[in-house]
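Onboarding guide, step 5: your first structure request.
Type a short instruction followed by the sequence, for example:

Predict the 3D structure of this protein.
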Amino acid sequence: MNIVSLFSGIGGLDQGFVHAGYDIIWANDFDKYAVQTYRANFRSPILLGDINAIPLESIPDHDVLIGGFPCQPFSMMGGGLGFEDARGTLFFRIAEIIEAKIQAGRKPRAIVLENVRSLKTHNRGKTFSVIANILQKDLGYIMYPMVLNSADYGVPQIRNRTFIVCFANHQAAFSVPKEVVLEKKLSDLLEHDVPEKYFLSERILPTILSNGTGGYNAKSEIDLPVARPLCATMGKMHRACQDNYVTQNGRIRRLTPRECARLQGFSDDFAIPVSDAQAYKQFGNAVTVNVAHAVAREVRKTLEKLGEWH
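The system replies with structure tokens like these:
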């Protein structure tokens, strides 16, 4: 099965599908550092550039389209819920790509999109209404939305994300991937002999461990068995109520980029060719490989039952 990957980032979603037997034939992202990391780890071609500036006809035909697209508010002026309401958003570009393939008689058999957990309530529910209407009514897919937590798929990180799985064949019967018992703790993923730069200084410790100031108050905890969600800005070192910190050799430190990679399901042979700052951003934005793999397996099972897998 050939895949086109949009908003690929460093390839967490892609890697899950590759592990399930799919072939990435074309990928795209606009972040040059993410593309650098992707190229260091995948043989699949990835094009650096704005997807809105890439001609539709240059995107190859494919069986499955995947992508973790950015979430943007949609206009609801006029009361409609179709293409007009999504125009100017990156989701609209996804819809344009699919529509172009439909017009050419090459409708993708399946679509897998990933986004934040709050997608259904984003912009007071209007965003999800537009997405669902376009995918189902305008493009003719059957849609299965779900929220999946990385901790339910073998990774010690609480990370709830929305997945939207769609099939062109309305006889498709898709099952939510079965959860597995979490056998690892954050402490199992830690590196040893960590460089000094990752340890907190005595000066910054009171700030990192505080429960907040002013009107903001949240409990700061370290050495959690299951990590808080990694975020794209964790390189800035937020308080311990938001970022993950651990104790090692009697001292407190932040996570290393490799530990963040492990918390996203990447194996240790996954190359990290960028700076720490970029690595933190990339792993904070990534799709957890374990979850992507679980979804990819279920999509494959559905396509096999339909006789559409090749």
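Each response can be followed by summary notes, for example: The CA atoms of residues 121 and 297 lie 28 Å apart.
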